[in-house]
Amino acid sequence: MYILENSNHALLRGRVAAPPELSHQTRQERFFRFPLRVRRLSGTEDILNILARERLIRELDLQPGTQIQAEGEIRTFNNKSGVGPKLVVSLFARSLSPAEASEDENRVVLTGTLCKPTLLRETPLGRSVCDLMLAVNRSYGRSDYLPCICWGSSAKEAAEWSVGTVVTLSGRFQSRDYRKLLPDGSYTEKTAYEISAMEVERIE
Protein backbone atom coordinates (compact mmCIF):
# COMPACT_ATOMS: atom_id res chain seq x y z
CA MET A 1 0.00 0.00 0.00
CA TYR A 2 1.31 3.46 -0.89
CA ILE A 3 1.13 5.75 2.17
CA LEU A 4 0.87 9.49 1.63
CA GLU A 5 2.85 11.75 3.95
CA ASN A 6 -0.45 13.38 4.85
CA SER A 7 -2.23 11.02 7.24
CA ASN A 8 -5.64 12.07 5.91
CA HIS A 9 -6.20 12.52 2.18
CA ALA A 10 -9.41 12.12 0.15
CA LEU A 11 -10.49 12.71 -3.44
CA LEU A 12 -14.11 12.61 -4.59
CA ARG A 13 -15.48 13.17 -8.08
CA GLY A 14 -19.23 13.25 -8.71
CA ARG A 15 -22.30 15.45 -9.13
CA VAL A 16 -23.69 18.14 -6.83
CA ALA A 17 -26.96 16.91 -5.29
CA ALA A 18 -28.20 20.22 -3.80
CA PRO A 19 -27.04 23.85 -3.65
CA PRO A 20 -24.54 24.82 -0.91
CA GLU A 21 -25.94 26.01 2.41
CA LEU A 22 -24.21 27.95 5.16
CA SER A 23 -22.75 25.57 7.73
CA HIS A 24 -21.01 27.87 10.21
CA GLN A 25 -18.74 30.87 10.61
CA THR A 26 -15.34 30.88 12.31
CA ARG A 27 -13.01 33.86 12.73
CA GLN A 28 -15.06 35.94 10.28
CA GLU A 29 -14.79 33.21 7.64
CA ARG A 30 -17.90 31.42 6.38
CA PHE A 31 -18.09 27.71 5.53
CA PHE A 32 -20.68 26.04 3.31
CA ARG A 33 -21.90 22.43 3.09
CA PHE A 34 -23.43 20.56 0.15
CA PRO A 35 -24.10 16.90 -0.77
CA LEU A 36 -22.20 15.19 -3.58
CA ARG A 37 -23.44 12.10 -5.44
CA VAL A 38 -20.63 9.65 -6.19
CA ARG A 39 -21.40 6.49 -8.16
CA ARG A 40 -19.85 3.15 -7.23
CA LEU A 41 -18.84 0.54 -9.81
CA SER A 42 -22.03 -1.36 -8.89
CA GLY A 43 -24.12 1.66 -9.92
CA THR A 44 -25.15 2.46 -6.33
CA GLU A 45 -24.67 6.10 -5.39
CA ASP A 46 -23.17 7.43 -2.17
CA ILE A 47 -24.44 10.87 -1.12
CA LEU A 48 -21.57 12.47 0.77
CA ASN A 49 -21.11 15.73 2.68
CA ILE A 50 -18.68 18.33 1.32
CA LEU A 51 -17.59 21.22 3.54
CA ALA A 52 -15.77 24.16 1.92
CA ARG A 53 -14.68 27.73 2.52
CA GLU A 54 -16.81 30.45 0.96
CA ARG A 55 -14.04 31.52 -1.43
CA LEU A 56 -13.99 28.03 -2.99
CA ILE A 57 -17.76 28.02 -3.32
CA ARG A 58 -17.78 31.45 -5.03
CA GLU A 59 -15.39 30.25 -7.74
CA LEU A 60 -17.82 27.59 -9.04
CA ASP A 61 -21.48 27.50 -10.06
CA LEU A 62 -22.52 24.59 -7.83
CA GLN A 63 -25.98 23.84 -9.15
CA PRO A 64 -27.53 20.35 -8.81
CA GLY A 65 -26.07 18.04 -11.46
CA THR A 66 -22.79 19.97 -11.81
CA GLN A 67 -19.83 17.59 -12.01
CA ILE A 68 -16.97 18.53 -9.70
CA GLN A 69 -13.86 17.14 -8.07
CA ALA A 70 -13.23 17.76 -4.35
CA GLU A 71 -9.87 17.07 -2.74
CA GLY A 72 -9.09 17.41 0.95
CA GLU A 73 -9.44 15.40 4.15
CA ILE A 74 -12.17 13.54 6.02
CA ARG A 75 -13.27 15.38 9.16
CA THR A 76 -15.81 14.86 11.93
CA PHE A 77 -17.56 16.96 14.51
CA ASN A 78 -20.08 16.18 17.25
CA ASN A 79 -23.51 17.60 16.48
CA LYS A 80 -25.05 18.79 19.77
CA SER A 81 -28.06 20.49 18.22
CA GLY A 82 -30.26 17.41 18.66
CA VAL A 83 -31.20 17.55 14.96
CA GLY A 84 -29.64 15.04 12.56
CA PRO A 85 -26.79 12.59 13.26
CA LYS A 86 -24.68 12.97 16.40
CA LEU A 87 -21.45 12.40 14.47
CA VAL A 88 -21.19 14.40 11.23
CA VAL A 89 -18.60 13.09 8.76
CA SER A 90 -17.59 15.30 5.81
CA LEU A 91 -14.87 15.84 3.25
CA PHE A 92 -13.27 19.18 4.12
CA ALA A 93 -12.32 20.53 0.70
CA ARG A 94 -8.88 22.02 0.16
CA SER A 95 -9.73 22.40 -3.53
CA LEU A 96 -12.83 22.26 -5.73
CA SER A 97 -12.68 22.09 -9.52
CA PRO A 98 -14.93 21.29 -12.52
CA ALA A 99 -14.85 17.64 -13.63
CA GLU A 100 -16.94 17.49 -16.79
CA ALA A 101 -17.12 14.19 -18.68
CA SER A 102 -15.04 12.44 -16.01
CA GLU A 103 -15.77 9.12 -14.34
CA ASP A 104 -16.77 9.26 -10.68
CA GLU A 105 -13.94 8.63 -8.24
CA ASN A 106 -13.73 7.96 -4.51
CA ARG A 107 -10.34 7.48 -2.84
CA VAL A 108 -9.31 7.86 0.80
CA VAL A 109 -5.95 7.18 2.52
CA LEU A 110 -5.74 7.40 6.32
CA THR A 111 -3.14 6.76 8.99
CA GLY A 112 -4.27 6.93 12.60
CA THR A 113 -4.63 5.19 15.94
CA LEU A 114 -7.38 2.84 17.11
CA CYS A 115 -9.23 4.69 19.88
CA LYS A 116 -11.96 2.12 20.64
CA PRO A 117 -12.01 -1.69 20.81
CA THR A 118 -12.65 -3.29 17.42
CA LEU A 119 -15.94 -5.08 16.79
CA LEU A 120 -16.12 -8.19 14.59
CA ARG A 121 -19.53 -9.10 13.20
CA GLU A 122 -21.15 -10.87 10.25
CA THR A 123 -23.44 -9.56 7.53
CA PRO A 124 -26.77 -11.39 6.91
CA LEU A 125 -24.95 -13.20 4.06
CA GLY A 126 -22.26 -14.44 6.45
CA ARG A 127 -19.41 -12.15 5.42
CA SER A 128 -17.04 -11.00 8.18
CA VAL A 129 -16.83 -7.26 8.80
CA CYS A 130 -14.89 -5.38 11.48
CA ASP A 131 -15.73 -1.91 12.81
CA LEU A 132 -12.77 0.35 13.61
CA MET A 133 -12.72 3.84 15.13
CA LEU A 134 -9.59 5.64 13.96
CA ALA A 135 -8.25 8.82 15.60
CA VAL A 136 -6.44 10.82 12.91
CA ASN A 137 -4.40 13.86 13.88
CA ARG A 138 -4.82 17.22 12.18
CA SER A 139 -3.19 20.59 12.69
CA TYR A 140 -3.23 22.54 15.96
CA GLY A 141 -3.39 19.44 18.15
CA ARG A 142 -6.88 18.37 17.09
CA SER A 143 -8.01 14.93 15.94
CA ASP A 144 -10.82 13.49 13.86
CA TYR A 145 -12.52 10.27 14.97
CA LEU A 146 -13.36 8.35 11.83
CA PRO A 147 -15.58 5.24 11.67
CA CYS A 148 -14.05 2.63 9.34
CA ILE A 149 -14.89 -0.92 8.31
CA CYS A 150 -12.88 -3.72 6.71
CA TRP A 151 -13.93 -7.07 5.30
CA GLY A 152 -13.12 -10.78 5.06
CA SER A 153 -9.69 -11.94 6.22
CA SER A 154 -8.69 -8.32 6.92
CA ALA A 155 -11.65 -8.03 9.30
CA LYS A 156 -10.59 -11.12 11.24
CA GLU A 157 -7.03 -9.83 11.51
CA ALA A 158 -8.13 -6.34 12.58
CA ALA A 159 -10.38 -7.82 15.28
CA GLU A 160 -7.21 -8.87 17.14
CA TRP A 161 -5.78 -5.35 17.28
CA SER A 162 -5.94 -3.42 20.54
CA VAL A 163 -6.63 0.21 21.34
CA GLY A 164 -3.50 2.25 20.57
CA THR A 165 -2.57 0.25 17.46
CA VAL A 166 -1.42 2.51 14.60
CA VAL A 167 -3.22 1.63 11.38
CA THR A 168 -2.95 2.76 7.76
CA LEU A 169 -5.69 2.05 5.23
CA SER A 170 -6.93 2.95 1.78
CA GLY A 171 -10.54 2.73 0.66
CA ARG A 172 -13.62 4.81 -0.06
CA PHE A 173 -15.87 7.26 1.80
CA GLN A 174 -19.38 5.87 1.71
CA SER A 175 -22.92 6.36 2.99
CA ARG A 176 -25.09 3.50 4.20
CA ASP A 177 -28.83 3.59 4.95
CA TYR A 178 -30.16 1.43 7.76
CA ARG A 179 -33.21 1.04 10.02
CA LYS A 180 -32.87 1.72 13.76
CA LEU A 181 -35.22 0.07 16.24
CA LEU A 182 -36.78 2.58 18.65
CA PRO A 183 -37.85 1.82 22.28
CA ASP A 184 -41.54 1.81 21.26
CA GLY A 185 -40.90 -0.98 18.72
CA SER A 186 -41.06 1.21 15.63
CA TYR A 187 -38.21 1.85 13.20
CA THR A 188 -36.60 5.02 11.93
CA GLU A 189 -34.47 5.43 8.80
CA LYS A 190 -30.85 6.48 9.43
CA THR A 191 -27.75 7.09 7.31
CA ALA A 192 -24.26 6.12 8.48
CA TYR A 193 -21.06 7.54 6.98
CA GLU A 194 -17.86 5.50 7.12
CA ILE A 195 -14.63 4.62 5.37
CA SER A 196 -14.79 1.20 3.73
CA ALA A 197 -11.20 -0.10 3.60
CA MET A 198 -9.95 -2.10 0.63
CA GLU A 199 -6.47 -2.38 2.17
CA VAL A 200 -5.66 -2.09 5.85
CA GLU A 201 -2.38 -2.69 7.70
CA ARG A 202 -1.03 -2.39 11.21
CA ILE A 203 2.12 -0.26 11.52
CA GLU A 204 4.61 -1.90 13.87
Write out key terms for the chains shown.
204 residues; OB fold (Dihydrolipoamide Acetyltransferase, E2P); mainly beta; 12 strands; 12-stranded mixed beta sheet
Give a description of the structure:
It is a single chain. With 204 residues, this protein is mostly beta strands. It has two domains: 8-104, OB fold (Dihydrolipoamide Acetyltransferase, E2P); 108-203, Beta Barrel (OB fold (Dihydrolipoamide Acetyltransferase, E2P)). The protein has two helices and twelve strands, in the order ββββαββββββαββ. Strands 1, 2, 3, 4, 5, 6, 7, 8, 9, 10, 11 and 12 form a twelve-stranded mixed β-sheet that branches. The protein is globular and about 45 Å long. The two termini are 15 Å apart.
Concise account of the structure shown:
The chain folds into 2 domains: 8-104, OB fold (Dihydrolipoamide Acetyltransferase, E2P), CATH 2.40.50; 108-203, OB fold (Dihydrolipoamide Acetyltransferase, E2P), CATH 2.40.50.140. The protein is built from 2 helices and 12 strands.
